[in-house]
Amino acid sequence: MEQKRLCLQFLDSISQHLQILPPAEQQVITTSVSCMITALDTAVTSSSDPPDAPPVGLGSRASQGSVGRPPIDIDCADLAVLNVGRVSHTRLAELYNCHPRTIRRRLLDLMVAFPAHTM
Predict the structure, then answer these.
(1) pTM score, two decimals?
(2) Cα(72)–Cα(62) distance, rounded to whole angstroms?
């Protein structure tokens, strides 16, 4: 947080002098500081430590040798909990290694989501 504060302080200090700089340099400075702040915000939520445990398996596929999509075993309780947050179907599908439509179907099966209106 200290680095972010320093970036904002720098931007505030330099803003007094931006008028004497060419527009291209003004753009470079403001864009660079903005990129630094974004990178710092991202770094706060990421870890550089290697994982200390294997990844959690959320869903498993069981091939039955039949035609069609292989069924994926998704724990309904886990899916319901994950769906409460602001997690998109696309992100949930990445976690379960399936298609977002599969997530949508399971949510419909759980009656957590409702069918969209047709146009």
Answers:
(1) 0.45
(2) 7
- The answer to whether 34 and 27 have CB atoms below 8 angstroms apart is no
Report H helices in the chain: 2-14, 23-45, 76-84, 89-96, 100-109
Q: What is the reported pLDDT for 35? A: 92
Residue 75 to residue 82: CA distance in whole angstroms: 11
Torsion from C-alpha of 78, 79, 85, 91, nearest 10 degrees? 120
CB-CB contact of 29 with 21 (8 Å)? yes
Token pair recorded at residue 52: 């200390």
Phi, psi angles (nearest 5°) of residue 94? -65, -40
The structure tokens 């069609």 sit at 68
Length of the chain: 119
pLDDT tens across 79-103, in order?
878 877 778 888 888 888 888 888 8
Q: Considering the chain, what percentage of its residues have pLDDT values greater than 70?
A: 85
- SS3 call for 60: strand
